[in-house]
Amino acid sequence: MTTLVVPNADTPLDLLLFVAVGREVAGLVEQTLAQNPGLAALGPFPPAGTNVTVTLPAAAAPAPAAVVRLY
Fold first, then answer.
1. What span, in angstroms and rounded, lies between the C-alpha atoms of 31 and 51?
2. HSE of 18 in the Cβ direction (CA atoms, 13 Å)?
3. Where are the domains of the chain?
């Protein structure tokens, strides 16, 4: 588990998670709301300085590159 801090009042939860993970992850916002009771009541833009506990997913394995043969 990781604790993220909302940097300013203009940062929505989904953007905070996207920046932390570096990609979109299906169900991460819902999982985060379930782990942090009362977070949804703060609205779409949590106040600056709000601590958010997140379970970050494992890093995605890079897709194998296609091999191109000219001859």
1. 15
2. 6
3. 2-54
Task: Give CA separation, 48 vs 16, 52, 61, 68, 69, in Å.
Answer: 12, 11, 33, 50, 53
> Which of 55, 25, 50, 24 is CA-nearest to residue 38?
50
Give this prediction's pTM. Answer: 0.78
For residue 11, give the nearest of 45, 54, 41 by alpha carbon.
45
DSSP for 3-62, please give it: EEE--STT--HHHHHHHHHSS--TTHHHHHHHHSTTSGGG-SSPPTT-EEEE-PPPPPPP
Residue range 63-67: mean pLDDT, rounded: 83
Asked whether the predicted pLDDT for residue 31 surpasses 70, the reply is yes
